[in-house]
Design brief:
This protein is an alpha+beta fold. It folds into 2 domains: 81 residues, no CATH class; 35 residues, no CATH class. The protein has 5 helices and 2 strands; from the N terminus they run H-H-H-E-E-H-H. A two-stranded antiparallel sheet has the order 1-2. Strand 1 and strand 2 form a beta hairpin. Helix 2 packs across helix 4 and helix 3 packs antiparallel against helix 4. The chain starts with 8 loop residues before the first helix and ends in an 8-residue tail after the last helix.
Length: 142
Amino acid sequence: MSPVRFPHTPRLLALALLTAGCTAPLSPEAQCFAEATVDYRAAWRGAQAIRADLDRGYALHPVAYRGVDAVPCRIDGARSSCLYGTDRVAELPVAIDRADLGRRLAALEARMDRLRPTAMARAAPCGFDALLAEGRPVRSRP
């Protein structure tokens, strides 16, 4: 029995390392702010999603499915097309209950109002006021 070969593994590893190296890290101030406001931002994202559904008039429900793509390949040295299975996600419209979403939005807004003073107090030592006063972008390193 011959060993299984994975011809694309080195390329995928190199691509993953390159991608990881190309993303700029957050500045210490931004890391501090992110840690200080994690609960508030979660409630805010939930409220934004509900507002989008209410504005749109329907929700988008993600559905995973398996698709097939034709990709160029070589069979016995000759150029050909091979079928390659891919995982995909489609967003299908789903009816919404406006009253229920309104109640959930009101609860999230009340939670945001409750979390805002704590989040601002925890984020105050992060130094954003000084950065913004200097006109520097928040993601920059000092």
